[in-house]
Design a protein that fits this description.
The protein has about 90 residues and is mainly alpha-helical. The chain is about 60% helix and about 5% strand. The chain has a domain of about 55 residues. Helix 1 runs antiparallel to helix 2. Keywords: Membrane, Transmembrane, Transmembrane helix.
C-alpha cells in the first residue's frame, strides 16, 4: 500500500507523545469537576489554562533544541544521505 492517496503524514513518536500529553492535560484540567475547585481564590480552570499557556511553548522549545542537538551529532555521511559502503 502506498502513501500516494493519503493526506496524512507520519509524526515522530516524541511529537505524538507531546500532542497526547497536551490532550490529556486539557481533558484533566478542563472537565466540569475543576470549575468549583479554588486555589488561592482562583479557579483550577484558570490555573490549568495559565500553566498550559506557559508549559506548552517551553516544552516545545526544549524538544526543538534537543532535536537540533541530536541532528548536529550525526556524521557527515548520514546528513548527506551518502552510504559508507559506496
Amino acid at each position: 500500500m502506498t502513501n500516494k492517496g493519503k493526506k496524512w503524514y507520519k509524526i515522530r513518536p516524541r511529537d505524538g507523545i507531546f500532542l497526547l500529553g497536551i490532550f490529556f492535560y486539557v481533558i484533566v484540567f478542563f472537565l466540569p469537576w475543576s470549575y468549583d475547585v479554588m486555589i488561592l481564590n482562583v479557579s483550577l480552570v484558570a490555573w490549568g489554562a495559565y500553566l498550559l499557556h506557559v508549559l506548552v511553548p517551553a516544552v516545545g522549545i526544549l524538544l526543538i533544541i534537543s532535536e537540533k542537538d541530536i541532528s548536529s551529532r550525526k556524521p557527515e555521511h548520514m546528513e548527506a544521505g551518502i552510504s559508507k559502503d559506496k
